Amino acid sequence: MSARPEIRYTICRICAAHCPLIATSKPDGALALHGDKDNPLYHGFSCVKGREIYNVQRGESRLLHSLRRLPDGRFEPIEWEAMAAEVAERLARIIADHGPRSVASYIGTYGYYSQPGMTFLNGLMNALGSRMIFTSATIDQPGRILAQAMHGAWLAGTPASDQWDALLLIGTNPVVSMNGALGPNPARRLRELRARGMKMVAIDPRLSETARHADIALQCRPGTDAQILAGFARAWLHAGLVDADFLSQECVGLDELQAAVEPFSFDLVANVAGVSENALREAATLLGTARVGAIAAGTGNNMSGQSTLSEYLVLALTSLRGWWLRAGDEKPNPGVLIQPPPAVAATLGPFAAGTGEASRIRGLQETMLGMPTATLSDEILTPGEGRVRALIVLGGNPALAFPDQAKAHAAMRDLDLLIVVDPVLSATARSADFVFAPKLSLEVQDSSAIYELFGNFGSPGMGFERPYAQFSQPLLEPPAGSDVAEDYEFIHAIARKMDLTLRIKPMSMLDPAEAERLSTRVEPGDRPDSDAVWKMLLNGSPVPYEEVRDCTRGRIFERPRVTVAPRPDGWIERLNLGDAGGLAELAATLNAINNEDTERPFRLIGRRMRDVMNSSWHDNPPQLRQWAYNPAFMNPGDIEALSIAPGRKVRIRSAHGDIVGVVQADPAVRTGCVSMSHCWGQTPDQPEDPLIDGSNTGRLLADDTQYDRVSGIPLMSGIPISLEPVDV
Ligand SMILES: Nc1nc2c(c(=O)[nH]1)N[C@H]1C(S)=C(S)[C@@H](COP(=O)(O)OP(=O)(O)OC[C@H]3O[C@@H](n4cnc5c(=O)[nH]c(N)nc54)[C@H](O)[C@@H]3O)O[C@H]1N2
Ligand SMILES: Nc1nc2c(c(=O)[nH]1)N[C@H]1C(S)=C(S)[C@@H](COP(=O)(O)OP(=O)(O)OC[C@H]3O[C@@H](n4cnc5c(=O)[nH]c(N)nc54)[C@H](O)[C@@H]3O)O[C@H]1N2
Ligand code: SF4
Ligand SMILES: [Mo]
Question: By percentage, how much of the chain surpasses pLDDT 70?
């Protein structure tokens, strides 16, 4: 019998879905990766980004050593523990001179997907006494979490997708982005649900890969989601298509909501949003007559000027229909690695979104999501007490990702100390004083816990709808001759040199007393291995860590059934449909109805591209087969009217800046819109070839002119622009 290649299992942590992958060794020792057909939730799903992780992790751009900047600007390799000692010394000096607030951290995409690193970095910031913790969440979909402060959070959560008669998707394209609503294999789930009779309405200026399966697709003008949702609320209230029992028992503020949505007749909304009155009416009826349904939104509505407002209306509409799990319903996932909120039919909140630390910028403040990231550049560049002087970046790339790219790049350069944890010399790392080269996913332990956690944030169809979990063990040693360690080891080495004790909290969202009880002290002299760290992160997990650790192939766990309990007697909190701030913001949209900009007649809208994740690994050929840059997708009619040939370059100008893009015809894009992905291009000090590097749309965005009053997320989609052909 010939030897069969050994089959092993891992997890892709490129995006939220954390797909299980099967790894087999090729004769040359390389790993071939593919999806797991027998997996009960993913059913073999994987994408090219995941199947390429071996190649990118073993690719030429990977850093095999940490780097220190020399006085002449060049980098030299440095042994990582020695680097941690130098970093510690410089941080101590900065704190002595400027106070703890002068030290900030920024956690980007791979900070979230490297939970040991993120938790240790948060622990270090707490130990230093700085609340200047920034994450990508406040330039992403911050309203999704922060609107719950205004509306309240329904503890029992949302019904599972097999219950839905209808789904409303707003500004999200889960089939490509895995952004929730349809679980970990969205295309398949959508097919199954539609075969069962589920109807779908999509609101998106582009007929996206998901929206094209909708029964009704509302290809709206960007930035008109709140008006459309207000129109739905009005229609439901007029027609009595609301859950009157739920409203009377669980909600307050109905009269205020009713008054606030009254001006939003479909006649007016059709005009504002540029969609047909008939389609709006049909969509409202389809959704309003569904017994159980779900509403999920994404970056589209959050980035187009109505983040908290549109998400507040998502919650209000969900409550009008009573689309929450109710007493007696079974909770689909009682939890494996993550403690779910208590299964009771009751409301937590409303509560204050702000949580303490004031930003020095634009009167904004810290929220549950940390400090407002769109203020970080100004926190660095603006002189005065508390100015940020040192920044630790974990798995993020501000120089390509932040709105107002030129300012963000200048801010990175202005810091006294920039430390970047990144496997490549990213656009941001090029400005760093120290770059730490981490171990990568195939070389470390990992788990499905983060996707399970995302399922507890109150958005339907996010996370696992069954008690599923997977744990992965390292499949590879780091490359020969490398000097790498895990993100958390580096952060802990800094703490050790500064003689700081770190408190490591579990990943679950817990009340403060419980979080304190389940947190672990890591002393300077400790050397926790990865196993010990995961045990800390999963402390208090519904299934004990030891039972899950060996489950390297994802599976569904036997868990006792959990039924939602009725609201306990004396519980006073109720969902608030009448938040004054939110409704005032809705009223203000009535004044902004004729915002035509004749100088800038087009609107730049955001999108994600299937084969790349934000700025990561744009140098891997199999991921660039379809697009090696980020085209400016436009409706063919617009291209013809402008007499630009597809494939030609155009100068794209906003009120803030300009870039050159490459035009690509796409009939799915609404007339008047230019659909372009983010995190491409170069920093402003480098030449940028749009056909090779792509174009950085962040250069077109201002971070300080139009922004959300709660999270500070600036206008990042629906940007007024002009287009002009570029002569070669
Ligand atoms: N104009 C515009 N701007 C946008 C957006 C938009 O739609 N339009 N979207 C915004 C959104 S939603 C987001 S989330 C942000 C993204 O903002 P960021 O998270 O700051 O940007 P990323 O490109 O995701 O940065 C990921 C970094 O992690 C590194 N990395 C990859 N693998 C690993 C790993 O295993 N470990 C570590 N430590 N690092 C790793 C990559 O090399 C890369 O440098 O961009 C925002 N910016
Ligand atoms: N392949 C891939 N997957 C990714 C990423 C990636 O870069 N590549 N990035 C990851 C990240 S960081 C995030 S945050 C998630 C985001 O996940 P999603 O929110 O699903 O992001 P997109 O796929 O860009 O879908 C946003 C949709 O909003 C539409 N849109 C733009 N403006 C408006 C508007 O004003 N109103 C409405 N209603 N729609 C609008 C766009 O046309 C687009 O189809 O995806 C993640 N997944
Ligand atoms: S969908 Fe996301 S997690 Fe799954 S293989 Fe692709 S990049 Fe990896
Ligand atoms: Mo994001």
Answer: 99
Q: Is the CB of 123 under 6 A from ligand 1?
A: no
CA separation, residue 165 to residues 54, 162, 197, 555 (Å) = 41, 8, 7, 28
pLDDT at site 255: 98
Closest-CA residue to 494 (of 394, 377, 388, 366): 394
Cα gap 611→59, rounded to integer Å: 17
Q: pLDDT per residue over 74-91, tens digit each?
A: 999 999 999 999 999 999
Q: Hey, what's the torsion of the CAs at 557, 559, 561, 566, to 10 degrees? A: -110
What pLDDT does 727 receive? 74
Which atom of ligand 1 has the smallest separation from the CA of 136? 14
CB neighbour burial string for 377-387, b if at least 16 within 10 angstroms, e if fewer: bbbbbeeeebb
Q: Are 601 and 613 in contact (CB under 8 A)?
A: no
What is the C-alpha separation between 519 and 94, in angstroms, rounded?
A: 29
Closest of 631, 440, 610 to residue 48, by C-alpha: 610
Q: Is the CB of 19 under 6 A from ligand 3?
A: yes
Residue identified by tokens 């295309």 is 187
pLDDT for the residue 1:
41
Average pLDDT over residues 676-691: 96
The distance in angstroms from the start CA to the end CA of the chain is 63
How do residues 232-265 score in pLDDT, each as one tens digit?
A: 999 999 999 999 999 999 999 999 999 999 999 9
- Dist. CA 487 → ligand 3 center (Å): 21
The number of the ligand nearest the C-alpha atom of 49 reads: 3
pTM: 0.98
- What's residue 226's pLDDT? 98
Report how far residue 668's alpha carbon sits from residue 675's, in angstroms, rounded to the nearest whole number: 10
DSSP 3-state of 128: helix
Environment class of residue 77 by beta-carbon count within 10 Å: exposed (0-12), middle (13-18) or buried (19+)? Answer: middle
602 and 722 in contact (C-beta within 8 Å)? yes
Measured from the CB, is residue 608 less than 6 Å from ligand 3? no
Is beta strand 365-367 parallel, antiparallel or unpaired with respect to 354-358? antiparallel
The 3-state DSSP composition of the chain as helix, strand, coil percent (nearest 5) reads 35, 20, 45
Write out pLDDT tens, residues 130-139.
Answer: 999 999 999 9
Mean predicted confidence (pLDDT) in 300-326: 98
Instruction: Summarize pLDDT for 496-531 with one digit per residue, the tens.
Output: 999 999 999 999 999 999 999 999 999 999 999 999
Burial class for 90, CB neighbours closer than 10 Å (0-12, 13-18, 19+) = middle
Own/partner contacts of 529-534, CB < 8 Å, gap of 24 or more, are 530/116, 530/444, 530/445, 530/486, 531/445, 533/116, 533/119, 533/120, 533/488, 533/504, 534/116, 534/445, 534/447, 534/471
Average pLDDT score over residue span 416-445: 98
> What is the model's pLDDT at position 358?
94
Does the N-terminal peptide bond of residue 350 adopt cis geometry, omega within 30 degrees of 0? Answer: yes
Q: What is the mean pLDDT of residues 397-418?
A: 98
Is the confidence at residue 5, as pLDDT, over 60? no
Q: At residue 473, what is the residue type?
A: Q
Show the 3-state SS of 674-686.
Answer: EEEECCCCCCCCC
d(CA 551, CA 693): 41
Q: How far apart are CA 308 and CA 711, in angstroms?
A: 8
- The whole-angstrom separation of Cα 184 and Cα 198 is 18
Pick the ligand that lies closest to the CA of residue 139: 1
Average pLDDT value over all residues in the chain = 96
485: nearest Cα among 153, 103, 79, 107:
79
Query: Residue 297 Cα, ligand 4 centroid: separation in angstroms?
Result: 13
